[in-house]
Specification:
single chain, about 625 residues, about 5% helix, 5 helices, Maltoporin, Chain A, 35 strands, mainly beta, about 55% strand, 5-stranded mixed β-sheet
Length: about 625
Amino acid sequence: MKTRKLTLSLLAAAPLCAAAQTNAPSYARDAIQLPELVITATRTERDINRTAATVSVINRATIEEKNFRTLAEALESLPGLSVVRNGTPGQATSVFTRGTKSQHTLLTIDGRRSPNMLAGGFDWGSLTLDNVDRIEMVRSSVGALYGGDAIGGVVNVITESGRGLEQPEYKAMFEVGSFNSFRESASVRGSDGKIDYAFAGSQFNADYPRDNNSFRRTSFRTSFGYEVSEDVYADVKTSYYQTDGGSPGSLAFPSVNDHLKREVTRVSPGVEWNASERFTTRAYYTFENQWQPSEDFGSVNRLSVRSHMFDLQNDLEFNDQLDGTAGLLFQHQDIERTTTSPFGGAFVAGLGSLSGYGQLEWEPRDYLRLFSTLRYDRYSDFQDALSWNSGVSATVPKTKTTIFGSVSSAVSTPTAQDLYFDFPAFGSFGNRNLKSESASTFEVGVRQPLMQKLELGVTWFRHEFQDLIQFIDPDGFGPIPGRPQNINAALSQGVESTANLKLNERVELSGSYTYLTAINKRTGQRLIRRPRHQFMANARWKVISKLMLHSGIQWVLDRQDTGANIPNGDYVLLNAGANYQATKNVELWVRGENLTDDKFEYTSGFPALRLGVYGGIRATF
């Protein structure tokens, strides 16, 4: 064990030593590649410097180089985010963007919305990256474009397709590692005339420390497209995944019998029509079925969530200076929960909404862009809401300095669990008197490239909330539940800074620091699971043409968790890996995680994984 730790520590230090030899500053690269064009910030393809938002992109090359297994792992490499797991991979995972709630970050797949889970948010820790082309993360409030789910931002997962490929592409991967973990995947994509296709499947098994903590995940994803004509393209995207594992609970309240299984089936047909050079319309329908049987404290529970969504988007170029986007969104969700528990928890609910939005982008000069968005949401169970956003982006021609900023408002409704999930034996958990949350957001940022090697960025952000819904647990923590309640006012604000340095063709470095204050303004207490300080640093060193070394460190300080703002200790995560291109078609890799064997908890009472070592092989034909 000592030898393995020493070897991995040296591996982690190698890229940083290379940087020191070139007299470079001790920044690091954070697994981000910024392509020229992004889609998610404005729902249309734009140069990243021509948006009034903070956008990061993780491309396919980085996913394979870092060997990210899930979306949550990839997001953890980005600044401004706090990814929190209830223990080991496969357990409940939340993503807090710049201090907002996990329910305030929207997930879309190929631009198509993913429906919320019962408690809001998404199953970040179970979405695999088997055939993902890139991930776009908007860390700005875009609620006027996407709705209240996007107060904190949007994660858009863009999958690979076979469209335009002259020859089919085949991939296979196998990985084995610590905690008796095995991961396998295979994919194929290609095209035949007007038809294109893509298929990917994967399997992951692990036996994590603690009793009742095994985990298994199976995932499939398909895409079929057809060029109806030169101007019309239709496709159908489907996915299915199943997770199955134990629920060991917290250290204070462990369980050796609790078990959770989850199945999610998704079907989404769509069509795109380029009516003219200046007008394009897109229409998507998405159906998703979430089925979740579980055993908790001796009771058998069954949860079914069926979601229907129809999304229509129209893009119009009025002239060379003015563009417009307008659309409609219909959503409906049917939820049913049954239980054998004598304490209750069963309910049936249906929630729906109809929304319309419009956006104008005006570019009066080549270096200046103005944005304005208006949205109206009509809800089945809540008061109608009006949201808006105004932004500006400007680039100084001589220095290439990009300055951007925005101000916006958005509304987010309570989740079904907040409203209806009751335990009559303990009083009431659900709160049918909850109001919708409202948020006002301000953001100002600057990006500055220097000498074509270095890019610096700094962004100030501020979210002011009214009626923010928080889980109030009067007993601190324990098996007796508290209750979700509106708090009068809350605030999250801070500064996010980044640095990316390309020393030469072999060595790239970058780093980031995020300072965050997130508080209940009425009581002055901190909002839980939002760390005050986050440092990240990564390095990448191409030793020879076939060998790549990479390492990264994450330092998280000043956290608080459930109860009366109980401090949750600081932690440092050191990861490193090596990728070797053995042949044109075969790549080998080794990866070490938590190399210092730091003992910590993302969530109080739920231990995170200690040191782990993994290795694998990937073949592409």
